[in-house]
Specification:
15 strands; two-stranded antiparallel ribbon; alpha/beta
């Protein structure tokens, strides 16, 4: 920065003035970079991506109702997760699945295609550059005017009081109040075993094999992307990965979104702009710590496929694993998952009184269902 000031004849300024000008310069430079990145993100890249997507399986167009849900996912080497993923979301009531495979070298695609109600696409576009574009492509192509849930293959979504109201009921609640997005908080799940001792198979039931979580290190900040309906709805950061690996993971996603023409999904990775946020939040139970975790870390560091920022995260994982062969996520603050009510009581999830009343009334209207 000092060289820039000297080149413009401003080298004689006081230190305070140089700091002020330096701050202005940094802010403007950052703003220009963000503007350039977004111009690529929302302008050129969508056009480039369309020519790099091929149809593998299932219908090219999905017709589903306003009270139904489409699940979209970008996936790579998710064979260990497919069966548990499909079992969970079938039980939840998802109407159709659209998965975009991004270079799997295992049998992920074959496993996905074996399930009914499935559309599978494929692209060779680099994930580090096209991650948001891929997900937005799926949302805009398949769910215009409808609800979609975006979940990675290692994420299982749930919402408060789901045992008392089906998915169609939840969507009707959201629509009746004009909500267009539901925020979901990621909950990292793990086994009681050290990471090196975990053995994973494609048929594993994730909820049974990885039943522990730890939210003691979750940092909660004000929500930034839309006006939250309740101040308790926060952005979550860190968590068990910060405690064990020293990483600063973002844990909050706008996962459930209605593509009403005003919402722009997948801004800055996992957020949405132009959305009217619901008065509840959901959870994405996240299962990265399977036996393939170490191999994924090594590949991510070697190929840098997740981009500069996330590669730093994987490098931190790699350093911790190399330093401690018996590394475990189990700490005194870990707890066994017993349902969403405990997370609500902790303030990890948000539920309005109106939603609780509505669920009770819904159950009374459907006594035999």
């Amino acid at each position: 920065m000092a060289e820039v000031l000297r080149s413009r004849g401003l080298g004689g300024l006081t230190a305070a003035a140089r700091r002020t000008l330096g701050s202005i310069y940094a802010e403007r430079t950052g703003r220009l970079r963000r503007t350039s990145r977004r111009a690529m993100e929302f302008g050129l890249r969508p056009h480039l991506l369309r020519g790099r997507v091929t149809q593998v399986h299932g219908p090219e167009h999905v017709d589903y109702g306003p009270d139904q849900l489409l699940l979209i996912s970008v996936v790579r080497n998710g064979a260990l997760y497919v069966e548990s993923f499909m079992e969970h979301y079938r039980a939840l009531g998802v109407a159709h699945f659209v998965c975009l495979d991004n270079g799997s070298t295992d049998d992920t695609v074959d496993r996905l295609c074996a399930h009914p109600g499935m559309t599978v696409l494929r692209t060779d576009a680099p994930y580090a550059t096209y991650e948001n574009t891929m997900k937005r492509y799926l949302a805009e192509r398949f769910s215009r005017g409808r609800w979609h849930l975006c979940a990675d293959i290692d994420e299982l979504f749930d919402y408060p009081l789901s045992e008392g109201v089906p998915l169609a009921g939840l969507l009707s609640y959201l629509d009746a109040r004009g909500f267009t997005a539901v925020v979901a908080q990621m909950l990292d799940m793990f086994s009681e075993l050290p990471l090196a001792a975990v053995k994973s198979l494609p048929g594993d039931r994730l909820k049974e094999k990885y039943p522990f979580f730890d939210i003691s290190a979750v940092e909660r900040r004000p929500y930034e992307w839309s006006e939250p309906p309740r101040p308790e709805l926060r952005m979550h950061w860190g968590g068990i990965r910060r405690a064990v690996f020293g990483t600063n993971n973002g844990l909050t996603k706008a996962a459930l979104v209605r593509m009403d023409g005003r919402v722009r999904p997948f801004v800055e990775w996992h957020q949405a702009t132009g959305a009217i946020l619901a008065d509840i939040s959901g959870v994405l139970m996240h299962y990265p710590f399977v036996s393939a975790f170490n191999d994924k870390v090594l590949e991510a560091v070697r190929t840098r496929r997740y981009g500069v920022t996330t590669t730093d995260e994987y490098e931190a994982y790699g350093r911790a694993l190399a330093k401690n062969s018996d590394l475990s996520l189990m700490r005194p603050t870990a707890r066994r998952f017993s349902g969403l009510e405990a997370l609500i009581a902790d303030g990890f999830l948000v539920v309005s009184d109106e939603y609780r009343r509505w669920v009770n009334e819904y159950a009374e209207r459907r006594p035999n269902r």
